[in-house]
Design a protein that fits this description.
heterodimer; A: 591 residues; Alpha-Beta Plaits; Fumarate Reductase Iron-sulfur Protein, Chain B, domain 2; FAD/NAD(P)-binding domain; five-stranded parallel β-sheet; B: 159 residues; mainly alpha; Ferritin; 4 helices; 0% strand
Chain lengths: 591, 159
């Protein structure tokens, strides 16, 4: 060994007395570049807690933590970032549906406590929170396609009003799978759905081509999915995270696609359930969505269930209230057939009267009431008793029962809900010129916005801020629909209300005035003592958290009980009643 | 329940006189609702009548406080008038009446009460009594407003 090699290790000791080249902190802090990927920032007002950032993180560096109560379209969770794992790839920012997440341009953070490097951006305040530089999601760049796959519709519009054929044609397999691939499986939709359907699960199954799996997920808590897939109010889509900056997933149409893959649902559905209801019987009065849901999920559990329906066909408002160009009768009959095949007994043209109700209370272990709102609210204007003034609900029922409905050449439909729109579009198909007269503004109309758009596309004329004053007879059997304009007034920040502007009268000559201002409950088919016991001051029914009324063993749901007045809410009430009935009869909680 | 022709055209000689008259009207209204609750056959109408009677009792208590010189909460100005009852036709309420019928009857009754106090105030020669009558008219207008908003929300929800 040479002398140099012996001395070399000791030469390092000379550094001990020299000034170090490194410094403990930077003398010059160079600002990060404009698009530098530094520490996370999050606009917590814009953030909806969807968790997509956590899902995409390749290093599991993001956990979702509760910071607030969940709210409509907001899980109440916010991302917590762990800088022991984060590699600043910014995938979390690029995928963020709301655009709330970003990376600041700040990269300097010195602290002896390693725990501080796990924090919730936007909640745990940092000096870089207001940094306008840094990495943000590029406009126009999306990891998830923000645009919905278009739904094929019957075109042109002129053809639609000549036929009762279904207007919405449905997705092809390729279209459905492409649309399903847009789902980030955040689950915000599940909370928003009144029935809490397993939406991400069935969408994932559709994406992967497993349609039988999708249908089984759907049928776990919805026995009328083909109906929902065509006419649901789709609260799920209102909160879809992709819908924040793009088109929400077409959840409704994907549900339709899945169920339409099978003409015989029995072949793909698994209905094995513990037969806890053997020997027990339940009477369901009213064959609408709520009643059918209750009947189906009790029947598959071994209960003997009988549905009593006053009309010739079950379905409730989904039968008589929804025109067949939206929801064909064959679609309803397919779903009903599954129910009867699996043990639900249905008696149509059977209106329960007070004496029979008393007998049902003796003969059955529980009763479910789902008779809905069939009594139309009347105009209470002068002239409403003239021939040619008719309630929309009666017109719809007659039409769906195959009776001839004469509407003449020109119709005015009073109202702005889905019943009004349906009456208007049916009248168009019967050859009439149609005007809708609505008291409030277009944005206040409770009807589905797609229905309003389709009605206008089909030539229905909308008159808003229109208050009916009276109806007078004209020569030749025609009617003079006299109306006054309304101004909208606001009080205390609530919804503006229409107020008549006096002194102005407008006239519209029509053949028919169709009144669709609303429906109200009518429980006079019940024994008077039961009706008084279970009704509230508005004539509907009040139920407890289990769906049971003040009469023991009598349950209720649907439009008589809830204020949302849509089919999916009625289905949710039916599911609640199933649990309630099982517990009431001491059979344990629903498995 | 104020009916056509109630009170004629009275010229009250004192504030207490006017308030006593108004208390009598509230008692009449509460009695009407309670009596109708006994006759009503439509499910739920009994309950609605009872609620309305309780509300009329509350109005009576406000007037009694006013008479005693206590803070009453009585209206000072007329609230917005939606005029819903103006274009609904009048009818005689029957035991088979439903909630829509009852609300219309209640709206029109409050409208008549408001007009009655306005008419009484118009012929009144005493400034302090006139002021009370105008406040009573505003209060009845407020009651009408409550019923009209309930009608707007619950009966005209789709229109």
């Amino acid at each position: 060994m040479s002398l140099k090699n012996v001395i070399a290790p000791f030469s390092a000791w000379a550094r001990a007395v020299q000034k170090p080249f490194t410094v403990p902190t930077a003398e010059t802090f160079r600002p990060g570049a404009d698009r530098y990927r530094g520490w996370h920032i999050n606009d917590t007002e814009q953030c909806i807690g969807c968790g997509t950032c956590s899902d995409i993180c390749q290093n599991s560096a993001i956990d979702m933590k509760p910071v607030d109560e969940p709210n409509k379209g907001d899980s109440g969770l916010r991302p917590l970032v762990d800088y022991g794992r984060c590699c600043w790839c910014a995938l979390c920012v690029d995928v963020c549906p709301s655009g709330s997440l970003g990376l600041s341009s700040n990269y300097i953070w010195i602290d002896r406590d390693p725990d501080v490097f796990r924090y919730i951006p936007g909640v745990d305040r940092k000096e870089w929170d207001s940094d306008e530089k840094g990495w943000r999601k590029d406009d126009g760049f999306n990891l998830v396609d923000p645009d919905r796959v278009p739904m094929p519709m019957m075109m042109p519009v002129e053809d639609r009003v000549k036929t009762w054929a279904e207007v919405v044609l449905g997705y092809t397999e390729a279209e459905a799978r492409a649309e399903a691939a847009r789902c980030v499986e955040c689950g915000l939709c599940v909370a928003a759905c009144p029935a809490h359907m397993h939406i991400p699960d069935y969408i994932a199954a559709i994406r992967d081509g497993h349609y039988d799996v999708a249908v089984n997920h759907i049928y776990d808590n919805n026995p009328l999915p083909e109906m929902c897939g065509k006419v649901c109010t789709r609260r799920c889509e209102d909160v879809c995270s992709i819908g924040v900056n793009g088109d929400p997933l077409a959840i409704r149409w994907l549900k339709r696609f899945a169920t339409e893959q099978f003409s015989d649902l029995s072949a793909v559905l698994s209905h094995e359930q513990p037969q806890i209801g053997t020997g027990k019987s339940v009477a369901v009065i009213g064959g609408g969505p709520g009643g059918l849901t209750t009947a189906f999920y009790l029947a598959v559990r071994g209960f003997k269930v009988t549905v009593f329906e006053a009309l010739p066909q079950v379905g409730g408002a989904t039968f008589f209230g929804i025109p067949k160009y939206r929801f064909p009768l064959g679609s309803l009959e397919k779903q009903i057939k599954l129910m009867t095949d699996w043990g639900v007994e249905i008696k149509t043209n059977h209106k329960v009267e007070p004496d029979e109700f008393k007998q049902l209370q003796q003969d059955y272990d529980a009763i479910y009431i789902g008779t809905g709102l069939l009594k139309p609210s009347s105009l209470r204007a002068e002239g409403e008793d003239l021939p040619g003034v008719m309630p929309a609900i009666e017109m719809l029922i007659d039409h769906h029962l195959g009776k001839t409905v004469e509407v003449g050449q020109h119709v005015v439909v009073v109202g702005g809900g889905n019943v009004a729109i349906d009456a208007a579009r049916i009248s168009r198909r019967l050859g009439a010129e149609v005007t809708i007269a609505y008291r409030r503004r277009l944005e206040d109309m409770p009807a589905d916005y797609e229905e309003i758009e389709d009605a206008e596309a089909e030539g229905v004329h909308l008159m808003t801020q229109n208050i009916p004053l009276r109806v007078e007879q004209l020569p030749g059997g025609r009617l003079d629909f006299i109306w006054g304009p309304a101004e909208m007034i606001s009080e205390g920040g609530g919804r503006p209300r229409p107020k008549l502007i006096e002194g102005i009268e407008n006239h519209l000559a029509v053949d028919k005035v169709i009144v669709a201002i609303g429906q109200k409950p009518d429980l006079r088919w019940l024994p008077a003592d039961v009706a008084e016991q279970i009704s509230n001051s508005w004539g509907g029914i009040t139920c407890d958290e289990n769906g049971m009324t003040a009469a023991p063993g009598v349950f209720a749901g649907g439009d008589l009980v809830n204020s949302t007045a849509d089919a999916i809410s009625a289905i949710a009430d039916g599911l609640k009643a199933v649990d309630g009935i099982i517990n009431y009869l001491g059979l344990g909680t629903k498995p | 329940m104020v009916r056509e022709g109630d009170a004629g055209k009275k010229n009250f000689s004192s504030v207490d006189d006017a308030i006593e008259f108004a208390i009598g009207q509230e008692i009449k209204a509460a009695n009407f609702y309670r009596e109708f609750a006994g006759k009503a056959t439509h499910p739920g109408v009994k309950k609605m009548c009872t609620e309305m009677a309780v509300e009329e009792d509350r109005h009576k208590e406000m007037l009694e406080k006013l008479k005693a010189g206590l803070p009453s909460g009585l209206a000072t100005d007329r609230v917005t008038d939606l005029k819903i009852s103006d274009y609904l036709r009048s009818f005689r309420i029957e035991p088979e009446a439903d909630q829509q019928d009852l609300l219309i009857a209640a709206m029109k009754s409050e409208a008549r009460a408001e007009q009655l106090y306005l008419d009484l105030a118009a012929i009144c020669t005493l400034p302090d009594v006139k002021e009370v009558l105008l406040r009573l008219a505003a209060e009845e207008g407020g009651h009408k407003d409550v019923f009209e908003k309930e009608y707007d929300d619950n009966i005209l929800g789709s229109n």
